[in-house]
Amino acid sequence: MRLDKFLKNSRLIKRRTVAKDACDGGRIQVNGQVAKAGTQLKVGDQISIQLGEKEIKVKVTALLEHVTKDDADKMYE
């Protein structure tokens, strides 16, 4: 699954275009490397998101195409 789509589906970032802009700005890393929006994710990847002064670190636990709001937090830990 693409990084920008994962961020939107998991509701870590509200919109896919915002996720793409964050990737293009170098504010998102996957496994310690700056990632592009089209980076393919695998279960177990570590994502680091820098939004302003806040940094979010998550580990991918599931790659789901269609997710309800209640299940979105099960995609990462």
Describe this structure in words.
- Helices cover 21% and strands 22% of the residues.
- A four-stranded antiparallel beta sheet has the order 2-1-3-4, with no helix packed on it.
- β1 and β2 form a beta hairpin.
- 26% of the residues are buried.
- The protein has 77 residues and is α+β, with helices and mostly antiparallel strands.
- The mean pLDDT is 93.
- It contains two helices and four strands, in the order ααββββ.
Write the layout of secondary structure elements.
Layout: H1 3-9, H2 16-24, E1 28-30, E2 33-34, E3 46-51, E4 54-59
Antiparallel strand pairs: 1-2, 1-3, 3-4
GO molecular function, one term: ribosomal large subunit binding
Pfam families: S4
Keywords: Protein biosynthesis, RNA-binding, rRNA-binding, Stress response, tRNA-binding
